[in-house]
Amino acid sequence: MPSSPTPSERERSDAEAKAREKEEQAKLPYKWTQTIKDLEIAVPVAGNLRGKDIEVVMTKTKLKVAVKGQAPAIDGDLTHAIKVDESAWTLETVGGGGKEVSIHLDKSNKMEWWDAVVTNAEYKIDTSKIVPENSKLGDLDGQTRGMVEKMMYDQRQKEMGKPTSEEEGKMEMLKKFQAQHPEMDFSNAKMS
Q1: 141 to each of 35, 103, 131, 146, 149, how far by Cα in Å?
Q2: In which band, very low, low, confident or very high, does the pLDDT at 2 lie, cut at 50, 70 and 90?
Q3: pLDDT higher for 6 or 49?
Q4: Which helix (H) or strand (E) holds 13?
């Protein structure tokens, strides 16, 4: 049975994989970054171009970015769906007299990482190595936010030696039952 890699071997392997991934991403004709909610893509173009010289076709599942009359820098099915109405592109001037097509893609599913912009990308990233930024409660959907707030409340209650929300609910039910049945003796009742 093969042995597990040591922490130093795992660290070296991860560093090599990260360096290879960085090198592969540098070969793409664009740069891209992502958060759990969206993607930002920058496609460098010549400094003499104007917006009318650029062709950007953006649908829920496809993206094409090209200088008119030239081969596209990006052309393919998106890795995952986007919200087209919340996505946009601009042509921006960058240092050194150049320009870039700056594209913002708003993810439809804000709970998944993309391994590439398009499915036919030559190189993909290892999404299991992504360390997400801390999120705010306000970023979460209502149901998830409620669950997280309840867990945080219960954790604080436990730390202070007080009952959790579930235990409080049981005690409240017992109080109501006691009020409805004053003839019964609950002095030795224990909640578990």
Answers
A1: 16, 25, 21, 9, 12
A2: low
A3: 49
A4: helix 7-26
| DSSP codes of every residue in 82-150 | B-GGG-EEEEEE-GGG-EEEEEEEEBSSTT---S-SBTT-S----GGG--PPPPPGGGS-HHHHHHHHH
- Residue environment code for 30-51, b if the CB has 16+ CB neighbours within 10 A, otherwise e: bebebeeebbebebebeeeeee
57 by DSSP, 3-state: which?
strand
What are 145's two structure tokens? 């936010």
Could you read off the pLDDT of 139-184 as tens digits, one per residue? 667 777 788 788 888 888 888 888 888 888 888 888 888 888 888 8
Dihedral sign, Cα of residue 38, residue 39, residue 40, residue 45: negative
Q: Which residue has the tokens 């007299």?
A: 97
How many separate helices (H) and strands (E) can be counted in the chain? 3, 7
The alpha carbons of the chain give a radius of gyration, in whole angstroms, of 27
**Residue labelled with tokens 């795992």:** 10
The residue-averaged pLDDT of 41-63 equals 95
Q: How far is CA 22 from the centre of its chain?
A: 20
User: SS3 of 43, please?
Assistant: strand
